């Protein structure tokens, strides 16, 4: 692997909450244009790992390298400022607001001289983005509460894509969606590869994992069981890695 291609490198990450060891000795390299799936049973440590990479938690020990440089995140906004965006299962969208305000939530565009919100520009840039990603919504002025779950998740992914320069973390992005909506969101995720971002996705659906990922990383009770190339493994192997039953 070349140094340029390495987006994120985790080395010997350890995370304990008091006496509970949530992650022990976890190491993973993520490359640009690659989708890695993180799988494991409930409580395996998947969300904890995503929270470490997104700056919500500081690991007890271990190293995080971003673009080849050792880094640490003071908090989630420090990770965001370094090009890392997260999409959660339960959406962090403002229901009463239009799509374009959500797209720029916390990073609103303003115009001189009085610093008023530049709604026209936010609307236009949001529209361009949803069109480009083919997120099918009535318009960038639609209110979030009038959209379907799949459309909302489409907006959350579009927002992450807009702001992420390096890495997108997805924590069960389709868990709350129906079949057709899930398929649509999976298409969006697959298309992100073309943007040369690195993508780490947590999913309980092995169908989804096998459809989307290049590699699969298995956690069991905080322990890293192994990493497989998706094309060189099968569901039986992954299930036995997850459960520990051969
Ligand atoms: N803030 C916290 N304080 C104490 N323990 C925690 C905290 N967050 C997570 N844990 C513990 O760490 C372990 C891993 O939890 P985590 O949420 O990462 O699991 P997960 O793999 O995401 O599970 P799920 O599939 O159910 O979402 C669990 O035993 C959990 O109880
Ligand atoms: Mg979780």
Give a structural overview.
The protein is α/β, with parallel strands linked by helices and 246 residues long. It has a domain at 6-97 and 166-243: Rossmann fold (3-Layer(aba) Sandwich), CATH 3.40.50. The protein has helices at 46-53, 76-81, 99-103, 119-133, 149-163, 179-192, 206-212, 235-243; strands at 6-17, 20-31, 35-39, 61-66, 69-71, 84-88, 110-111, 116-117, 167-171, 198-202, 215-220, 223-229. The strands form three sheets. It has a six-stranded mixed beta sheet, sandwiched between helices. A four-stranded antiparallel beta sheet has the order 2-1-4-5, with helices on one face. Strands 7-8 form a two-stranded antiparallel ribbon. The longest helix is centred in the middle third of the chain and has 15 residues, at 119-133. The chain is globular. The model has no long low-confidence stretch (mean pLDDT 92). The site of magnesium ion (MG) has 2 residues, from helix 1.
């Amino acid at each position: 692997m070349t140094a340029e291609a390495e987006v994120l490198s985790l080395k010997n990450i350890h995370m304990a909450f008091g006496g509970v060891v949530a992650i022990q000795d976890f190491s993973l390299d993520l490359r640009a244009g690659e989708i890695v799936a993180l799988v494991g049973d409930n409580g395996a440590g998947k969300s904890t790992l995503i929270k470490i990479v997104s700056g919500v938690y500081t690991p007890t020990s271990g190293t995080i390298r971003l673009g080849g440089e050792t880094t640490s995140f003071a908090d989630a906004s420090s990770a965001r400022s370094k090009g890392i965006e997260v999409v959660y299962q339960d959406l962090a969208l403002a229901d009463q607001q239009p799509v374009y305000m959500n797209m720029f939530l916390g990073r609103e565009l303003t115009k001189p001289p009085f610093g008023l919100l530049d709604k026209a520009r936010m609307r236009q840039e949001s529209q361009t983005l949803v069109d480009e990603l083919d997120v099918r919504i009535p318009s960038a002025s639609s209110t979030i509460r009038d959209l379907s779950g799949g459309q909302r998740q489409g907006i959350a992914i579009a927002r992450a894509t807009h702001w992420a320069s390096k890495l997108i973390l997805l924590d069960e992005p389709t868990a709350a969606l129906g079949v057709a909506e899930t398929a649509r969101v999976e298409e969006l995720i697959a298309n992100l590869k073309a943007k040369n971002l690195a993508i780490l996705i947590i999913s309980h659906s092995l169908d989804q994992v096998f459809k989307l990922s290049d590699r699969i990383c298995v956690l069991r009770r905080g322990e890293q069981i192994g990493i497989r190339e998706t094309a060189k493994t099968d569901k039986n192997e992954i299930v036995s890695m997850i459960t520990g039953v051969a």
